[in-house]
Amino acid sequence: MQLTSPRLRAALLAAASLTLVAAVLPPPQALGIGDRLFPELGNPGYDVLSYDLSFAYKDNRTPLDAVTVINARTLQALDRINLDFSHGTVASAEVNGVPAQFESAGEDLVLTPARPVGEGAPLRITVRHTSDPRGSGDGGWVPTEDGLAMANQADAAHRVFPCNDHPADKALFTFRVTAPAGLTVVANGVPGALPALRTGSTTSWTYRTLHPMATELAQVSIGRSAVVHGTGPHGLPLRDVVPAADRQRLDPWLKKTAGHIAWMEERVGRYPFENYGVLIARATTGFELETQTLSLFEHSLFSDGSYPQWYVEAVMVHELAHQWFGDSVSPRTWSDLWLNEGHATWYEALYADGLGKYSLERRMREAYQRSDQWRAAGGPPAAPKASPPGEKIGLFRPVVYDGSALILYALRQEIGAAAFDRIERRWVTEHKDSVAGTEDFVRLASQEAGRDLTAFLNPWLYGKTTPAMPGHPEWGGPKKA
Prior knowledge:
Layout: H1 6-24, E1 46-56, E2 64-74, E3 81-84, E4 90-95, E5 98-99, E6 101-105, E7 108-112, E8 122-131, E9 140-144, E10 147-151, E11 172-180, E12 184-187, E13 190-191, E14 197-199, E15 202-208, E16 220-223, E17 225-231, E18 237-243, H2 247-254, H3 257-268, E19 278-281, E20 295-298, H4 300-303, H5 309-321, E21 329-331, H6 337-354, H7 360-378, H8 402-415, H9 417-430, E22 434-436, H10 438-449, H11 454-462
Parallel strand pairs: 1-11, 19-20, 21-22
Antiparallel strand pairs: 1-2, 2-8, 3-7, 4-5, 4-8, 6-7, 9-10, 11-15, 12-16, 13-15, 14-15, 17-18
């Protein structure tokens, strides 16, 4: 039979090619980029440039219909393409506009294109899938009283959408979300060029980031929310998202953000992104989270009355500080987490010290007294132990918070406040919108100090026990290795 339709011929040839490739290739395997703490996280062979994510939300009991479009560039020739994805059903996949075979392997979605993609080539992946908010319990979508939010740290973005789920591969994001009329959708970045579009019983919303972002920092809020706009230092747009019913009650807290940003800018330089705000959700997470430009907070932090005002403000500064340390400058590997949490804790502690409520020296001395115990339980700050299976936030132990801020305190004691301040400003300037790790920090600190600090910092970073604190012999003297 002679085929007369070019489209039909192309479809049949593509299907035949897929069958041939599948017959030759071995079974798909879950791959990773070799992160010590998450060995199967991330995927080799390509660099993601952008994500375009579309979600259709109905309610918290129904999986969202979704389309993920990834634009990337190959770093090597690929006859298979691994994506991280584990909590949804895939309907179809395309690679560079041609249907691709897809299979699951562990927590990977493995695509087999009709023909291999060469090294250095454009790569456009389209996956039609569902995104299931139900019952994961280990991150990703977080149910709230009136909708959903996201909490993807450390390894849960791929429970929401197919991706290269490692902070070393940052990309631009576009979000397109359709939700029932009466709900408000907010995501990272700025609204799209067109306003929210009402069509019948639903409204469609679009947002895009102006700076690259790690997958763990993606945020989409869906709910009966009020969006409160304001202005921060040098005209910075502020955008807070709160339950609509609590808008007036939460307003005093929202008004503090501009001052917090000014305080941080005095210490490390200009805020690095297009806007900022807090997302206060009626949800129980057990943590607050520095999702890029829109930090996630539990409602109870502000409403239950058991936390003093100075403490709440210090926590707000902690998540704000992450916009520089962890978001703009992302960790090269998850073992570099101390650079995120140690710095955020440092500025949280400095802020509380400035309020006269909890002195920095007292907090650091108390951390020093507990440091050996923290290291025994969680490993040294720059080589933390992996989290136990099934414990999503098990990596976030005291050793990466106050135990790591203690390293910064020791560094300042060793080289002086002026050199330390230069390190902080240079760190967030030179690595803006990029990734950096522990070796990069030691190198930069040595340059600013005018001497090699490797021998000084390595015991603090990797030692099983805590070194002696410079300038504080009364804290207990040298520790035994």
